[in-house]
Amino acid sequence: MSTTALMGQIPEGPPQPRARMTGVVYLVYFLTAIGAQLMLGHKLVALGNATNELGVGLYLLLTLLFYNLFKPVNRSLSLLAALFGIAGCVVMGLGFFYPAAPSINPLWFFGPYCLLIGYLIFRSTFLPHILGVLMAFAGAGWLAFLSPVVVQHLAVYIEGLGILAEASLMLWLIVMGVNIQRWSEQATAARRGQ
């Protein structure tokens, strides 16, 4: 099944319930990732890895939900972001099964993914621009995290910025959703431009 066909299976529907559902999936992903790390910290490796795989599946779903949410802003960039997100999920998921394989860091994909999501939020009319700025900084931080020098000196700050950005977006979507009128206007304008 092609990526476009897979992404087309997420229903279009009204934006507010989908935006809130995206926030809830984000929250469940966060809780799953935290749970997996706690399990791995307590030497429950098999259960921790299984929980991490569940987290990867949730992030994949989140990627598809974001694709549909941001299609009205720019369909091509939303698709590109989704492809980076999917690639990051695949690399992360394979890392659990083949830990001795040559390592490709998922941040090579999640960094650009967050940068693109940040840009799409900033260009949207239905979410606050500050969320886009935070997500773009988080994406740049994830890319900077790939440098051993940066990891040694700034890891805590980069992780904190990433958590702040993604948690802010998650909470905004759950509590506030999107501005329905502006989302609809942007969606209508995007359809006219096709």
Please specify the SSE layout and strand pairing.
Elements: H1 3-7, H2 15-41, H3 45-70, H4 75-97, H5 107-123, H6 129-144, H7 148-175, H8 180-193
Helix pairs in contact: 2-3, 2-7, 3-4, 4-5, 5-6, 6-7
What report would you give on this structure?
The protein is mainly alpha-helical. It has helices spanning 3-7, 15-41, 45-70, 75-97, 107-123, 129-144, 148-175, 180-193. The protein has one domain (15-185). Helix 2 (15-41) runs antiparallel to helix 3, helix 3 packs antiparallel against helix 4 (75-97) and helix 5 (107-123) runs antiparallel to helix 6.
Strand content: under 5%
Uncertain runs are 1-6
- Largest sheet composition: none
Helix content: over 70%
SSE sequence, one letter per element: HHHHHHHH
Content-based structural category:
mainly alpha
Q: Count the E strands.
A: 0
Q: Please state the average pLDDT score.
A: 88
**Radius of gyration in whole Å, from Cα?**
17 Å
Key words describing this protein structure:
globular, single chain, about 190 residues, mainly alpha
Give a brief rundown of this model:
This protein is mainly alpha-helical and 194 residues long. It is built from eight helices and no strands.
